[in-house]
Amino acid sequence: MTGRKSVAAPRITSSFVLLALLATGCATAQGVEGAKPAEPAPNLSDLKRSIVAYHDSGRWDADITRANQQGQDYLARRLHQGVSKPAIVLDIDETSLSTYGYEVAHDFGYDATAFDDYVLAREATGIASTVDLVRFADAHGVAVFFVTGRRESQQMRDASAQDLREEGYPEPDGLYLRPADDHDPSVVPYKSGARASIEQQGYQIVLNIGDQDSDLDGGHAERAVRLPNPMYEVG
Predict the structure, then answer these.
(1) Is residue 135 assigned to a domain?
(2) CA 226 to CA 212: how far, in whole Å?
(3) 36 φ/ψ sector (left φ>0, alpha ψ -120 to 50, else beta)
(4) pTM of the predicted model as reported, rounded to 2 decimal places
(5) Which pLDDT value is given to residue 37?
(6) What is the per-residue pLDDT across 210-224, written as a single tens digit (0 to 9) for each?
(7) In a domain, 108, yes or no
(8) How many structural domains is the chain composed of?
(9) Is 148 exposed, middle or buried (0-12, 13-18, 19+ CB in 10 A)?
(10) Is the pLDDT score of 12 beyond 60?
(11) CATH number at residue 117
């Protein structure tokens, strides 16, 4: 998952820290009236605890369900209006399957080999409201495509397809994995290119769902829906 950034406190360069200290010192030395103390940087431990609280409270699932319902409502309206060869496109991790178990076990850090082992073991779990959305689409004759940043290999393809199947997703019309030789710093060209390829097959992509801006950027979909993911970013 090239380009992924784990949750962390903002990166502050030594020069930035030095400038901040100098500015604070100058303000104090000159006795500037009303000078405010520097805002404390976010605490990494607090951020991690807030993610766990967000998950355990049920608010995360509720926010995902709300976003997916908005997507399903839009899809239903478009189907009622009549769409030729409709399709939806979904990301996998944190959109269709949750890797929260991996994140907690690794203290919200990221190791490519460990993550791949987790995926190959099919430990990611289905996101219920996304399963419901995809089942709705499938039941209404909408083609379903998964476009993931997981790297292409036969093992990864087989594990991804099997995990989706085991978690209740209908058989998709297509499963796109990122080519192993794609070294672009962003996944946007690959993902938008995959959607363009789907359109070239005659499909009209009514809905594109992901948990990252990079899942949705680049067009080739009528409506984009972003699900919440406070754990990491993928460029």
Answers:
(1) yes
(2) 7
(3) beta
(4) 0.84
(5) 66
(6) 999 999 999 999 999
(7) yes
(8) 1
(9) buried
(10) no
(11) 3.40.50.1000
